[in-house]
Amino acid sequence: MCFKESEEYNKINVAKQAILNTITVAGELALISPKALIICGSGLGGIAKILKGKTIKIPYADIPGFCQSTVPGHIGCLLFGRIGENMVPVVCMVGRLHYYEGYNFEQVTFPVRVAASMGIKEMIATNASGGVNETYKAGDLMVISDHINIPGLAGSHPLRGSNLSHFGPRFPAMSDAYDLELRILFFKAVRKLGINRTIHEGIYTYCCGPSFETTAECRMIRMLGGDSVGMSTVPEIIVARHAGMRCFGLSLITNSVLSTPPPSAKEAISKGLTAMEMLKNGDEKTSHAEVLREGQNASDDVNIIMEAFVNTL
Q: Where is the Nucleoside phosphorylase domain (predicted)?
């Protein structure tokens, strides 16, 4: 084992022990090894509201090795509790970490490895994303069946560097990244609830951010087969799968991406039009406020579905 691996294992163990100590002091020993890790995406932190019984909140600042979430809508804490009639023990990451915040992939995925070291076997990752598929509308949900990792294809990969062989192999398969059984359980739960919200199943495309995609990039993603696009989830999924965790991903579609080419300056000159005249019907822009707003609008349905889904685990 090289020094880098040894150092990383030590950091993970120190963080795990700090979490276990807090749970022990709180007297909730049943929460020491939760059934699932739930990552709450932008605008979806309300998932933590469905926890039942006594909960234990641990701010990231109190966990050695954890970085601070800096994005609006991401509180930055672990919240331990139980979900559903079966009182399934879970831990929620209320606020995730992103590469665009300036953290490297090792820092972004560190909480996932800590969760794996605690014996957690399943991970549920939620996010807010833009709808690339032209049939997707704001407020729809998308169960992730596969992903396109654009940074990874370009060489920026969360498993780059020394392999932590204690967790998984050097070359892990990703063809089964999003567990079929978990997806089936989710759709069964939705069917029983009878919720009137469109739910798709499709391919999530990961881009680093923090800028939203250009119209040309959106057209490229559509050509590649992506159904939605966002700035998270894939690094955590890859590291979780490397550690042998079963994964489920859910995207809230907050907007339809803008894919119409920008106005042409050459056309403006030929028609004698000003920039303002050319832009009057094409000045729509995506914003983070829009993401949070759609998350708030969908939160009640998402919470109900998640409670029913997690209750089956």
A: 36-310
**Domains assigned to the chain:** 3-310 (3.40.50.1580)
Known catalytic membership, residue 251: no
Q: What is the pLDDT of residue 256?
A: 85
Q: Is 197 annotated as a binding residue?
A: no
> Phi and psi of 60, rounded to 5°?
-55, -35
pLDDT higher than threshold 70 for residue 287: no
- Residues 73, 192: Cα–Cα separation, whole Å: 30
Token pair recorded at residue 37: 């890790």
Catalytic pick among 128, 240, 243, 306:
128
Spatial separation of the C-alpha atoms in residues 8 and 6, rounded to whole Å: 5
Q: Please state whether the predicted TM-score (pTM) of the whole model is above 0.90.
A: yes
The reply to whether 166 belongs to the active site is no
80 or 273, greater pLDDT: 80
Q: Is 74 a catalytic residue?
A: yes
| 184-202 residue pLDDT tens | 999 999 999 988 889 999 9
